[in-house]
Design a protein that fits this description.
alpha/beta; two-stranded parallel ribbon; 5 helices; 18% strand
Length: 169
C-alpha cells in the first residue's frame, strides 16, 4: 500500500486529501483542514495530485453546489464504534442536521450522546463524512474540529445552495 496526498483549494481554506493505493485502487483515508488540530504533516506520503484528482473534482463540485453526496472509496481508521457513528453521519441528508442525541437513539442507546460526540470529533473524513451536520439538541452549532465558522459556512452552503458572501478564505 502506498500513501499519498493532494492539497486542494476550497472556500474554507486548503484541504489536504490523504489516500492509499493498492493495486491501482485508491481509497480516501482522511480530509484535513488547515488548522492546529488538523496539523498532520507526518504520514501524508508523497504528493500526488493525479491519483487523487477524482476526489479533488468531487470537492470542487460540492463547493460549487453541484454535488450533494460523494462517490469515493473510503477507508477511515477508527474503532468499531467510531465507524458505526461515521456511517450514521453519511445517512444525514444534504441540507439537514441531526443532534448527538438523535444519533445515539439511532444506535439504540440515548445515553451514548457524549460517545457519539467524541466519535464525531474524531472523524478523519471531514465533509465527505458530514460531521458538520451534527448540532446540539437545542439547535445550536456546537464544536467542530475545523472551527465553527467553517461549520456555519458548510451548513449555509447546503441549506441555501450558496456560501455566505462575506466569507474570508
Amino acid at each position: 500500500m502506498t500513501t499519498m496526498h493532494s492539497v486542494v483549494d476550497s472556500p474554507i481554506g486548503p484541504l489536504t486529501l490523504v489516500g492509499e493505493t493498492a493495486s491501482g485502487h485508491v481509497r480516501l483515508t482522511a480530509v484535513w483542514m488547515a488548522s492546529p488540530r488538523h496539523d498532520h504533516a507526518e504520514g501524508l506520503g508523497v504528493r500526488d495530485d493525479a491519483v487523487l484528482a477524482d476526489a479533488a473534482r468531487q470537492f470542487d463540485e460540492y463547493f460549487a453546489g453541484e454535488r450533494t453526496t460523494f462517490d469515493l472509496d473510503l477507508d477511515p481508521v477508527g474503532t468499531d464504534f467510531e465507524k458505526k457513528v461515521w456511517m450514521l453521519l453519511r445517512d444525514i441528508p444534504y441540507g439537514q442536521t441531526r443532534s448527538y442525541g438523535e444519533l445515539a437513539v439511532d444506535l439504540g442507546d440515548p445515553r451514548l450522546s457524549r460517545a457519539v460526540g467524541t466519535a464525531n470529533g474524531r472523524n478523519p473524513l471531514s465533509i465527505v463524512v458530514p460531521c458538520h451536520r451534527v448540532i446540539g439538541a437545542d439547535g445550536s452549532l456546537t464544536g467542530y474540529a475545523g472551527g465553527l465558522e467553517r461549520k456555519r459556512f458548510l451548513l449555509s452552503l447546503e441549506r441555501d445552495g450558496a456560501p455566505a458572501a462575506d466569507w474570508l478564505f
